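Notes taken during the Thursday session

The instructor put the following on the board and asked us to keep it in front of us for the whole hour. The protein is HTH araC/xylS-type domain-containing protein. We were told not to look anything up and to reason only from what is written here. First, the residues (152 in total):
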Amino acid sequence: MDLALAMVAEDHGQALALATARTMVMYVKRPGGQSQFSVPLSAPPPPDDRFGPLLRVIAEQPAADLSTEALAARAGLSVRHFSRLFARHTGRTPAAYVEGTRLERARRLLEESDRALADVARASGLGSVETLHRAFRRGLNTTPADYRRRFR
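Then, after some discussion, the predicted structure tokens were revealed:
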């Protein structure tokens, strides 16, 4: 796949290669040690249809209040029951899923824009540059600035 993407980049340009990689949920150039998956695509489709709209809200509105309490209320479940069902259906706790989704949004903003880190942190729902740095270290084992340099 890496060779195919390199050929697309050579023949049709880096922008098309990057778009193709995103469609395929791949990195154009994958550095060692980084996770290689998309948070929404990593979760199996939930059989309980109350989670489908909820997962879309998480993906589309990462800066919203996505606390476990708020998500449980939106699903009409107690926090404890919601947390158990959510983890069973997605394989992750609500907090881990939300952070992964926010990290993915931040990653895309860094790839596609020249926005300041503070703007990226706010738009992705991570809030502050410090939280953005912690999330990148924890999830991708790199810093936002290094990530931007590597993938822009």
